[in-house]
Amino acid sequence: MNTMNRLFGAAPKGSKPNLNNAIGNVDDRISSIDVKLASINAELSGYQQKIAKMRDGPGKTALKQKALKVLQRRKMYESQRDQLQGQVWNMEQAATMQDNLKNVMTTVDALQTTNKELKKQYGKVDIDKIERLQDEMADLMDVGNDIQESLSRGYDIPEDVDEAELDAELELLGEEMEMENAMTGEVPAFMQDEVVPEFVDEPPEAEGKSKVAATG
């Protein structure tokens, strides 16, 4: 338990463990190890430079022993760092799965809420009433089409009427009108060449001829 607290950091009393806090604590531990490794590498570099300049002998051998111990410490810290990085990776994967699960649950909740609302709204819809409205609309459209067809009906001469009979009747009508005009002495308006307005006493040409006759 003490080891876990040292690696991940003890959670505050009364609070539940948090993956993000644990990941942060482990990252801090890795950073601390990296600082130690940098110091060890600098120490090893110094030993290597000294050993390269020394002749074989007891002094060089003793210096190599010190360098080997430092190298062992570096391997130990590197192993710890690798383990901690593995733990961070696992926790990050777990955090990702947790976030995905939260998103899934949120989506499911939203779908359930939407489903309830849709059921509530569709429950208010009367299918039979809609079908009756559709039938009524179809009937009204038929009535409207009949009205339009009736209004656009043409009034052509029936095909069974004999045109020769019409011509004869028209000619007879003309003869009757001529006989009536001959008896009354009036010329039909449509047969007059020119109609002189009532307010004109005499046409211009006739007035001109009368003036010439007067001067002559």
Automatic annotation (TrEMBL):
Pfam family, one: Snf7
Keyword Coiled coil found: yes
Stretches assigned to coiled coil: 101-150
Keywords: Coiled coil
Family classification: Belongs to the SNF7 family.
One annotated GO biological process: late endosome to vacuole transport via multivesicular body sorting pathway
UniProt-recorded name of the protein: Snf7 family protein
Any one Gene Ontology cellular component term annotated for this protein: multivesicular body
Organism: Zalerion maritima
